[in-house]
Amino acid sequence: AAQTIGVSLASDVNPFYIAMKRGIEERAKELGMKVVFVTANEVISQQVNGIQDLVARKVDGILASPIDAVAVGAAYNVAAKAGIPVISVARHTDSPGQSAYVSMDEQQIGRDIAAWIAKHSGGKGKIAMVAGPSGAATFRNLAEGFEAGVKSAPGLSIVYRKEVPLTREMGLQQAEDILVAHPDVVAIYGANDEIALGASQAVAAAGKKGKVLITGMNGTPPAVRAVKNGAVDLTVDLNPVAWGRLGVDTMANYLKGQKPTGTVAIKHVLVDKTNVDKHLPPAK
Amino acid sequence: MTELEVCGLSKHFGATQALADVSLSVRGGQVLALIGENGAGKSTLIKVLSGIHRPDRGEVRLNGQPLRLHSPAEGMAAGIVLVPQDLHVVPGLSVAENILLGHLPTRRVAGVLPSIDRKAMRAMAQSVLQDIGVALHPDTPAGELSFAERQLVVIARALGREARVLILDEPTASLERREVERLFDVVRRLRAQSVAVIYISHRLEEVEGLADRCVVLRDGRVVAHMEAPPFPIGQLVEAMTGRVLADPGASPRESGQIPAGAPRLRVALEGGTFECRSGEIAGIGGLLGSGAKALLRRLFGASDAGGASPHGSIRHAIAAGVGLVPGERAHSLVMSMSVRDNIVLAHLDAYAHAFARHEGRIDEAVARLMELLDIRPRSPHLPVAHLSGGNQQKVAFAKWLVARREVLLLDEPTNGIDIAAKALIHERIIAFAAEGGSVVLSSSDLPELLALSDTISVLRQGRLAGRMEPGASFGEARLRDLLESSA
Amino acid sequence: MSRSPPLQPLAGNAAAQPSVGSAPAWIRGRAVDQIPTAVLLVLCAFAALMSDRFLSSANLSNVLLQAAVLAVITVGMTYVIIGGGFDLSVGSVVALAGCIGAEVMLQAGITAGVAAGLLAGVAVGLVNGTVVAYLGVSPFIATLATMVLVRGVVLLITNGAPVVGEEGLPQGFLDYGTSRFLGLPLLVWTAAAVFVVFAWILHRTAYGTRIYATGGSREAAFLSGVPVRRISLSTYVVSGLTAGIAGVMLASRLQSGQPTAGEFYELNSIAAVVLGGAALHGGEGKLYKSMVGVLIMVVLANSLNLIGVDSYWQRVTIGLVIVAAAAADQLRRRRR
Amino acid sequence: MSRSPPLQPLAGNAAAQPSVGSAPAWIRGRAVDQIPTAVLLVLCAFAALMSDRFLSSANLSNVLLQAAVLAVITVGMTYVIIGGGFDLSVGSVVALAGCIGAEVMLQAGITAGVAAGLLAGVAVGLVNGTVVAYLGVSPFIATLATMVLVRGVVLLITNGAPVVGEEGLPQGFLDYGTSRFLGLPLLVWTAAAVFVVFAWILHRTAYGTRIYATGGSREAAFLSGVPVRRISLSTYVVSGLTAGIAGVMLASRLQSGQPTAGEFYELNSIAAVVLGGAALHGGEGKLYKSMVGVLIMVVLANSLNLIGVDSYWQRVTIGLVIVAAAAADQLRRRRR
Ligand SMILES: Nc1ncnc2c1ncn2[C@@H]1O[C@H](COP(=O)(O)OP(=O)(O)OP(=O)(O)O)[C@@H](O)[C@H]1O
Ligand SMILES: Nc1ncnc2c1ncn2[C@@H]1O[C@H](COP(=O)(O)OP(=O)(O)OP(=O)(O)O)[C@@H](O)[C@H]1O
Ligand SMILES: [Mg+2]
Ligand SMILES: [Mg+2]
């Protein structure tokens, strides 16, 4: 019988995970494997329940992007006890139940964004941060890396910091307030592309297009297009589709007995004006 | 000896001075009657006495000690027990639980776990109910009781407490003579046990029969003290209203004419057909829980009343000129809405076009009716919840005078209404019938029922159990026979 | 049994009319009715004190813009709540209307798109109203269910991705979201128009009175010939319609149909209505007061951003201010 | 003017006692009362049919484990709702109790940690209860405010990061979250114990009856000498306490104090109570029925995962099932 992989992503409405889901589905089809998804919506206990449901369902392997590093521990252990391998994708955990990790270095991405801003702002000026949802590990790590990066550039300072849900509306509303409170910001850091796209609208409406750097993250197609037309200045291509594919490959190999050691890394790429053409989504 | 004194009490609500410098006292072994027109401040006074309202000024003393109550619970702890005018029972709880709510008997299971002693609770409830001669099952959910039955539960609730001062606010408003008599027996017994009783009623003949002393309130002030019976009704009325009324208690209508013509209303009941002709006042009599409310609702077209309705729906009934004054004010009035909006609610179509209400015409009609029925205070924008009980009842009646009606269905229409206004409403009812209107009148007040009705149908448990036609024997004795035979 | 001296007429008779309280009491009576407005003014004064940018015209127009969408939703929510109901589905309807509107707009033009968005809102309102008024399901549970269900439908329709098309939404529609008239954004004018129309209906027509009656006492309304079911159904339709309008407005503001748009609008909108002094059991409330409630919510968030309060402290502050505002408003109802 | 035949004694007299319906009616009466249970059974049957793993003992214990935390929260929520209130803050309290509990545990041991968690819950309950019962603020707005405020406090305390310490939480505590007794997780036993204790209190003691009275008719209860304010305050304290217990339980399950834990628990918990047949206006409901409501919610989510329904369709399905369950439950109340 075909092997079944259970998948527990952190969210099913975040474009990043939607793209990852596509990669997983594509690759599993190519390999003749079945996939079933359970949903978590960034709610930790729901993810733990979902993973346990997958164990109860006796899937052959589980791919998960844990919302929190510690909280899924018990669920991972249940899977391990049932002899089901769990591979973390994109977000990691310290659980001994974790069989492998397809990783990203969130802190490093944050530092890279800060360095990019330092370079393009001439190393001077005020920065506003619209960080991701409170308490979410990924965005906490990103923000920490970013703040560390800003600290190492003496001319830069963070004058505004707010944690919000990852929606375009929030990006828009926050940027509107930022531009009133700090008309002289040189850059707005957006925790993801949706926030950056919302911020770009507020900046355009205030007639400051091109005068304020806007950074996003995830490399979603609308954001890459926005980089191309200058509305957004930077996004980070995490290539979630490839990531999903790699997750399935890793799992397939694992099930065949080729156990990877430690982490399987995937690279992130900063996308700005200079390299955007290579990252543009294919026109339909 | 218990003595409750009230010294210089004042209380206002917004612009209304409900009590102004009221002083009185009552001793154990006395029944003090408190009377006054609708809105005179009677309920407000006893709400202060029992801890529901805090006074603005003045003091209440119990046995010489100043009493500062913050809730009825504290009042009860001090021995002051109230039967309020607005009947409140907890619909989801049983009769027994309602009666004993404030002091549920508790036992310990296995010597430790606290638990309600349901057996004791039933027994205690049963004994209080028996005291007032009511055959209600203690396990019946209170929500299923008729209005009068709920009134009895509320009375039983008060009688179940150890009272030093018992306050009754219009306890008999929807009770029939038999229950009234039993209640009086209990009150007299308590008086003999030297409980102090304050008794509020608009049935002045009750005051005569029960009270030892009488205080008259008008516009929040004490206008008369009478220290011993008898209390001639004429004098009481004069003190209440400041006017001399021409014998308001007299029977205002000559019954005995059944108008000719086909019945305008006709419904088949178990046990016979109920009919009412044009120009007829058809009385409905019945003891506790007789099903009068259900019959009136059915005549009105309420879809939940069971049985086919003549008009199909309330909307159609209203359009055909039918109006209903339900026995319960809460079913008739939207308490949070103004007097004005309540009065026109059932006739909005006549007072509005598609895009706006005719505010001017509404103002006119409302002002006219408030004047006519003497609804006080004369502020059309006041929420109905802020009116006194009797004034609310007048609003419930005014609702159907605002547009032309063919049929009026009245359930206890004068419940809680003072004697002058009652005469006025009787006049209106009679005039309405004289102009060819049909009236179906259900009332627990037998004199009222007999005085107004042309025919009286007796209901028992929703069945038509008998009918009294005009004639020589049309009268109280015969009606009583009908009501009580086979009951 | 001697008769004691009868009738002792005491003190001077009061007039037939109960005496009217002193003027100050009257004024006090009105003033406490305006507590929400006072709270709003205090908030604004405080914000102006703490940040000199608060009163800048750019920021004030900002505040109105941010309030516009919530205000339109809250118009419908006020209808539902006065009618004795509750609508948790408005946030999902905002997303639905925005996404369907955007989708249709891409194929058939702006008018068709807007119409489709509003229709989608009305459709959900009809479902809510039918389930509540005719099946008798508790409004909370019925609209919680449609909140989840409609969000699912939006995600299915859009596959979870924003609706923008290849070339973006029609320019005319984007212009609507960014243009101004007499210095104020068109979106603010739209909200004002919606307010005026629905305030008239609620406060000046027979239908409006019937909504109050239905919410105030279903039984009494029923016995006064008010078609209570139809009225309560209609309030959900109004709420669906206004949420639909809000969804289209938000789509123009976000230049796309967003499947995740509108989250938490339901709670904010209900909070605004209650802050405006309406009772959740129905029968009470005024539309303009709900708008004051909206402004309290929006000014609060805006001013905390301007002052630069930390995100976590913002939550604490918002919680405190809401409790304080609501408690102040209760002063006027204190009795007993 | 002839006298017509008088009294026509009709049919047999009914007894003084209201006549008792026929046996079938009685059974019918009871049966419709059990609609939520029937819905749960149908759901389970359907799940068993669609997935052969549903009835496996591993999965059933799974379901109970997943239900445990929500069940404990719902115990308190049932108290609040029967008492005529509403508590939106429970989700935030779960996070607060978990984080404070974990923090204290790391410093002062398990017992102190658990006590601290429960105390934190009780404290929030006291605040809610005071604001609602003594300041007279609408429960919706009061607990919405504390929901936001407490979440802010949690984030401030934890700085947004999970509480685990260097070495993780004490082993004994982690064991509690994973151990079993007689084949069932200790967490399930905890929930069962909480249920039994609070069911006794609610259904067997005078205090319990007073809660029903307060919710059923505040006015009647007040006039009967029930200290309605104290009773309604106490229900919020119970809700805070059970949310605190749930928070500690969840922390043991998540092996950490999570500042974002508990989101949406408030809505799920209220939904469970209402699905169990309680009325949001208070005075009605049974604790075991609320537990049936919890199981409906949990089985629904679990079975959709087992069957492998797409997550967007899951939302649609959940919405439909909730409406259907609630509508079925209304059959028994049909009137007007
Ligand atoms: N809660 C309230 N808010 C505002 N006004 C009130 C309130 N309660 C009573 N009033 C006013 O106080 C006055 C006295 O009312 P009260 O109920 O004491 O009259 P009452 O003598 O009991 O009349 P009735 O015979 O009609 O019951 C009335 O004018 C009434 O409108
Ligand atoms: N059609 C009926 N068949 C049997 N019982 C009935 C019927 N209608 C009413 N009852 C009984 O009468 C009680 C309620 O009736 P309803 O409220 O109509 O009476 P009512 O005449 O208004 O009573 P009251 O005068 O005591 O207020 C119920 O307890 C019910 O048992
Ligand atoms: Mg009174
Ligand atoms: Mg009656």
Automatic annotation (TrEMBL), chain B:
Per UniProt, the keywords (alphabetical) are: ATP-binding, Cell membrane, Membrane, Nucleotide-binding, Repeat, Sugar transport, Translocase, Transport
Which Gene Ontology MF annotations are present? ATP binding; ATP hydrolysis activity
Q: Does the keyword Repeat apply?
A: yes
- Source species, domain of life: Bacteria
Phylogenetic lineage:
Bacteria, Pseudomonadati, Pseudomonadota, Betaproteobacteria, Burkholderiales
The protein's matches in Pfam families, at most eight in alphabetical order, are given as: ABC_tran
In terms of InterPro entries, this protein maps to: AAA+_ATPase, ABC_carbohydrate_import_ATPase, ABC_transporter-like_ATP-bd, ABC_transporter-like_CS, P-loop_NTPase
Q: Which segments constitute the ABC transporter domain? A: 4-244, 252-486
The leader peptide range reads: none
Q: Which CDD domains match?
A: ABC_Carb_Monos_I, ABC_Carb_Monos_II
Listed name of the protein: Sugar ABC transporter ATP-binding protein
TrEMBL record, chains C, D:
Q: Where in the cell is it found?
A: Cell membrane
Which CDD domains does the record match to this protein?
TM_PBP1_transp_AraH_like
Arranged from A to Z, the UniProt key words for this protein are: Cell membrane, Membrane, Transmembrane, Transmembrane helix
InterPro entries in the record: ABC_transp_permease
Q: What one GO molecular function would you report for this record? A: transmembrane transporter activity
Q: Which residues cross the membrane?
A: 34-51, 63-86, 106-128, 140-161, 181-202, 233-252, 287-306
Q: How does it sit in the membrane?
A: Multi-pass membrane protein
Q: Name one Pfam family in it.
A: BPD_transp_2
- Record-given protein name: ABC transporter permease
